[in-house]
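yo

u said u wanted the structure for the complex thing, so here. seqs first:
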Amino acid sequence: MNQTESRVLVTGARGFIGRHCLPRLRARGFDVHAVSAGPVDELGAGWHQCDLLDPVASERLVRKIRPTHLLHLAWIAEPGVFWQSPLNRKWLAASVALIESFYEAGGRRVVAAGSCAEYAASASPHVEDTTPTVPDTLYGHAKAATYFALRAAAHGRGGWAWMRLFFPYGPGEPAARFIPAAINALIRGQKLDCTSGTQVRDFIHVRDVAEACAVLLDTDLNGIFNVGSGNACTLREVGALIAAEVGAEGLLRFNAREAPAHDRPYVVADMSKMLNQLGWKPQLALSEGIRITVAAKRRELGLLSA
Amino acid sequence: MNQTESRVLVTGARGFIGRHCLPRLRARGFDVHAVSAGPVDELGAGWHQCDLLDPVASERLVRKIRPTHLLHLAWIAEPGVFWQSPLNRKWLAASVALIESFYEAGGRRVVAAGSCAEYAASASPHVEDTTPTVPDTLYGHAKAATYFALRAAAHGRGGWAWMRLFFPYGPGEPAARFIPAAINALIRGQKLDCTSGTQVRDFIHVRDVAEACAVLLDTDLNGIFNVGSGNACTLREVGALIAAEVGAEGLLRFNAREAPAHDRPYVVADMSKMLNQLGWKPQLALSEGIRITVAAKRRELGLLSA
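structre next:
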């Protein structure tokens, strides 16, 4: 595909996933325009400061940039808090307004971040067009509402893909989440109180997530697409991988605290659709991804030369 | 329940369903405040003029009335057109804003009109918490988005019921729809070109719909509730009932025109939830409802004394 006329607006560009997307989009020939709520002066060309929660400001930005593509990643993401935060409602309304402005200004394709939290709880891998959409958190409801609003916005106007993200991890992940918290504690030789650790999750390295974003922008296929690894792993198993990589055993104290009420026992992606329709699968095995993430943390702490 | 402090704001109050709700809500002791986009001077106390598509105006209205309950029926409903109209997007955004304003102002309970068009196509009766939410029209997507936004808005704030309306009919139904069009043609002795007529539908008399609205406002149960009859009926069968009631055979020409692409072969409600959880079921059999509707049309045309 010739991207010479493709101009992508990336929201949440400074976030954990967004920052990994920008070089990949440039590499595919997109003219990348990145949005941040904070000051962007030092970030260079292609950066725009905009409070997307203000629909007037976001419409003005869209009219100025006239993007052909929209990669919409911005949302409240504060660990723990985001599940039931009232800010989910503001991000829902802001996303509906942004997507409307985008298509109204002639935009051609939207790729937006949904969540595995939209699915009904299930003890088997979650399948895009089969597992029902039955969230049980404020976050899940707001994301599901945004999905259906995207469908309503796209009718007769343009393309769309809705990513259902599973559990991205890697360098830059917010420190309060399990993998970075465990790495940080173990590198420092500190104990960490954990929940039961029997929860089964689908972890995917942020580089693979960013690659999936780029692939989904750069296709004409419409649909919901899981973005996970397809591999089931308990928190205890990932904890053991981290302990082995760091060389610090016995510091993760499982069953030391309660999991939140909405914590589900099993959340794993079926990744057939991305493979069958787009020939895409994640590249980094969990052990390799943990190795990279531990090394990055050590460099950050000055324990390893870059 | 003591309704002395219950003030209900009814949107779409002048519409086909809304007008049947008002006396039932008053009979239950609600202080009824009705909204119309058009002039309300001649309608008396309790009427308010407001363009709900203007979120500033709708917030101002909510702050003025401070309703405890919201019955939200307003939406684009122009026969044929509403399935794919861009106005669905405006009603989605307006509904999200109205519901947000309502809870923000201390409102306690929302009952809002969804649609059987939110369900996945299915050859068996549609069950609230089992049949997947997979619409295939702009209208269905916008309604589904509003449902999930209502869930997000209600979290930690108040009660809610989402009605999935099947096929309301009765006096006042928009003239272009099948039942009123057939009655009108047959009373006048005119032929009517119809689609195949093999479509199976679930018709419910508007009086029963209005009663369901009142019952759902006047409970503390939260959930999705089908509002249908639970009875499957082909368009040919309802056409035969009308022909028998009017005494005019052979005027409905089935297979004379194509059905729209999104027309589904089978759309019928499972009504167990309303019966089991609320002890509610519709009262008017289809034959009786058709008799009432034909009589009302004859009175309107001056062919029968009131």
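Chain B touches chain A through 27 residues (CB under 8 Å). Residues 87-104 of chain B form the longest helix (18 residues).
cya
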